[in-house]
Amino acid sequence: MYPTTLPARRSMPIQQPIGVAVVVISCALGGTGSVFALSHANEWGKMLDTRVPYFDVQTVDVDATRLDIRSAAEHLANIRQVLNPAIADLATAFGVSRQAIYKWIGGESTPEDDKLERIRSLSLAADAFQKAGVTRASSLLKMKAFDGHSLLDLVAAGQLVPEHTQTLIAEAQAMDAAYSRSGLAKSKAAPSDEWRAELSIPGSSE
């Protein structure tokens, strides 16, 4: 005769309710997954030493990798705000008429690819000046700092690269430092930019 009721289940005591944890390692060990107790971490941790390169974290410059989707009109607005060039100078740098510049600014037409690349290079230079806190970037546009060529000359030739902009930023910072040391900042005379040279910078060919 079989018993009609089952014996009451006894709760099993938990041997280690706190203090024992497991770590599931899947990708690190190249398998489908394994369980390792933290209490033996000193032993199994050595197996991860050779796997460290897989977890090497590289820092990424978000600004450098961000896709620039600004239109030609937006680039030109940025250039005019930061660099404040004359429309005639922009026309010369981009190889078009002043009317074409006005149409690009107003969004009435769009520049050709080669012209857009020149606009974009100058706009990126404006970004760099603004990021560096250069407040008188307009005074650097015609400085003959590169073998007798200015920033606008390089744009016209399609040769402007970030290194050129960084050179001018360094020069602007040097001029600001010299201005501060001269004591002119404390003078009661009206401020002027006439002391800033537009012909060359120290170390140039001129």
- The percent range for helix content is 40-55%
Helices, by number, come to: 8
The major sheet is characterized as:
2 strands, antiparallel
Distance between the termini: 115 Å
Shape call: extended
Task: Please provide a written account of the structure.
- With 206 residues, the chain is mostly helical.
- The protein folds into two domains: 22-51, no CATH class; 69-186, no CATH class.
- It has eight helices and two strands; from the N terminus they run E-E-H-H-H-H-H-H-H-H.
- The chain has helices at 41-44, 62-65, 72-82, 87-94, 98-106, 113-131, 151-157, 162-182, and strands at residues 22-25, 34-37.
- It has a two-stranded antiparallel ribbon.
SSE order and pairing:
Blueprint: E1 22-25, E2 34-37, H1 41-44, H2 62-65, H3 72-82, H4 87-94, H5 98-106, H6 113-131, H7 151-157, H8 162-182
Antiparallel strand pairs: 1-2
Keywords:
two-stranded antiparallel ribbon; 4% strand; 40% helix; single chain; 206 residues; mainly alpha
